[in-house]
Write a structure and sequence with these properties.
Layout (H helix, E strand, L loop, with lengths): L30 E6 L7 H15 L3 E5 L15 H12 L2 E9 L2 E2 L1 H8 L15 E7 L7 H12 L3 E2 L4 E3 L16 H20 L3 H4 L3 H8 L8
Parallel strand pairs: 1-2, 1-3, 3-5, 5-6, 5-7
Antiparallel strand pairs: 3-4
Helix pairs in contact: 1-5
The structure holds flavin mononucleotide.
């Protein structure tokens, strides 16, 4: 081993194929939490999330949808607030997530961001989102845009999630639902099926390996040297 403690030291657990073998092989249905970013009574982001939930259930997933109504702003209440606790419990339970925000002024809504801002990067020794899968979606009233999914991808990275490549953006969302609040058959609908299919595949593939997949050399090294890891 080098005298220089700054250079890479394989002793701090270099990657190897055998470590990618899952320690156990989970058989339960993939657990997917779905979040949306609107409090409107007939919110198309909620209807889109409900459509995604039906598709996930048809594919065999176990699903939960969080209703953001009543969630306080960050620091307006503490983490014992019932809505905050409900959100934290769902995040811990989940193995993968779907986030769907409306686009407002070219960006995600405050309702969407508030939910993510309540999720701690670490809670004691548990990192509630780290290594979990994520699918990002947006809906908008205007022509198709990707501003919001791009922002959600940045948030996914910040929460150390495995954000899948495919994504969905439903343009002129008010035209895409019928009088029973079901999504009409369209290329937008088919894209949501594609995204959910990819999410389930990535969740099953990674859920039993996630701790190893996102384990970081720099953090293991700091811990072994008796230091504290930075929240970045
Ligand atoms: C203040 C405001 C800003 C908006 N900004 C945009 C925008 O930048 N791009 C867009 O396509 N639609 C925009 N919309 C339309 C919303 O995306 C649309 O009404 C959407 O259905 C709202 O989401 P919800 O149905 O889930 O509540 C805006 C609407 C409001 C009220």
């Amino acid at each position: 081993m080098s005298e220089n403690s700054n250079i890479f030291q394989p002793a701090f657990d270099a990657p190897s194929f055998d470590k990618l073998e899952p320690l156990n092989s989970s058989e339960h249905p993939p657990r997917i939490l779905l979040l949306y970013g609107s409090l409107r009574e007939r919110a198309f982001s909620r209807l889109t999330i409900e459509e995604a939930e039906r598709i996930l259930q048809d594919m065999g997933a176990d699903t939960r949808v969080f209703n953001p109504e009543g969630l306080p702003l960050v620091n307006e209440a503490d983490k014992d607030h019932p809505k905050v606790k409900e959100l934290h419990d769902l995040v811990k339970w989940s193995e993968g997530q779907v986030w769907c925000s409306p686009e407002r002024h070219g960006a995600m809504t405050g309702v969407m961001k508030t939910q993510i801002d309540w999720i701690p990067l670490s809670d004691g020794s548990v990192r509630p989102t780290q290594g979990k899968t994520l699918a990002v979606m947006q809906i908008e009233g205007g022509s198709q845009s990707f501003n919001t999914v791009n922002q959600l991808r940045i948030l996914g990275r910040w929460m150390r999630m495995l954000t899948i490549p495919n994504q969905s953006s439903v343009a002129r969302a008010y035209q895409e639902f019928d009088e029973n609040d079901r999504m009409k058959n369209s290329s937008f609908y088919n894209r949501i099926v594609d995204v959910m299919e990819e999410l389930i595949k990535f969740t099953i593939l990674t859920r039993d390996r996630k701790d190893y997949l996102v384990s970081r050399y720099s953090e293991r090294k700091t811990i072994l040297q008796g230091g504290q890891i930075k929240q970045k």
